[in-house]
Amino acid sequence: MYRAFSVLALTTFATPTLLLSPDAPSVAPTPSDRGYKALTETAFIPGFWSKKSILNAWKHWDGAKEKPADYDAAFRERYGLHSAPYPNDGLPMGLRKANLLLGQGIGADCMLCHGSTIFGKSYVGLGNSTLDIQGLFEDLALADGLPGRLPFTFSNVRGTNEADGFGVYLLGFRNPDLTIRDTWKDLGLRDDTCADVPAWWLMKKKRTIYYTGATDSRSVRTLMQFMMHPLNPPSAFEKAEVAFRDIQQYLLNLEPPKYPFAIDKVKAAKGEIVFQDHCAKCHGTYGEKWTYPNKVIALDEIGTDPTRHAGVSIDYGIAYSESWFGKEKAGLFADGKSLRWTPGYQTPPLDGIWATAPYLHNGSVPTLYHVLNSKTRPKLYTRSFKTDEADYDKEKVGWRVTELPSPPSDKLSGFERRKVYDTNKPGRSNAGHKFGDVLSDEERWAVIEYLKGL
After folding, report:
1. What is the pLDDT of residue 312?
2. The pLDDT of residue 14
3. Closest Cα to residue 82, out of 140, 137, 43, 128?
4. H or E element in which residue 193 lies
5. What is the dihedral of CA 425, 430, 433, 439, to 10 degrees?
């Protein structure tokens, strides 16, 4: 599930500035305006770290003997963080000032995973495919003089996370009314599902969300699971629900960034025809009169890594359904359930797909060309984890990678090992979705040209 989490606690699409004369009548903010303001200005969970944690994090970097000169940039690059396109007290997207038990410190928010840059421009709602959330939480804890050991693995490979694990772990501390349990209950926690982060702007088309299509997209409360920080009382959830109704409206109004380079219109037109014949029945049609079928494709048909599908247990499903999260009327299916079991993965809309590499639910495929030609997919590789034009493959559409002859040595730090994507590891297979293999190379390149413009 691509929930924004919280053991992290928890524009690009900026709200437009209204140029009004002094005598002009005031304009009431829309729910979307209020949602943007709440999302970018509110600390919905208490902090995790002291203010000094960021300043001292470099002391725990391999081989670092002195603080880097441009420390803000070095800090962002180290952990895959990005400049905030809104006022944020000088902090990168995803980090913010938040209250501790005593005084003020640093917390995390949704944009840690749901905010990124591409070609130097920051976007709220673009999945963060460069984030090392494991390293960030380990290092900031160490910088505060705390053990760097996390309660479970937050990320096995950079740019992905264990989003489902966060929800399962946090709900294990809560009773159905969200009061704190006496002891933590294991609801089937696992940390090998390796989730890529989808773009928020896709939500407007979906009737169901998360990779398995398990939850009704009308649910507001499902977006609030990251708030299960142990210091948040049950009253905090009811209080924040109003703001999250507005935040949901903001998410539903997001639009993807436009492809910034030239598109061969003749080739794209040919690609659209091929797309209609081979792809549209699952991924929908595009343009003013778009369609989206909201299909779930069974595992034996799609053939992609099944680990994520098994990542949410029956125990968790029962606990979620019986909790405050599962009692929201707007989020119930026709049978009265708040979660549903599905046989596979939901096919996503493809709006803005040029900006959302890597691909598949586990981020195992670096470019669109590799998606459409499964025989060419790299099996063991790394990349720069930068998002500049030099790091982007305009031809194949996605991130440039360097294939490796062998897995990283166990002697390397976890920080370095997480930079390597090994498709032989649990949850990281790049198999499946072989539908593009039937295309000729000419057809494949035409489809890619068409996809640039979605």
Report:
1. 87
2. 38
3. 128
4. none
5. -160
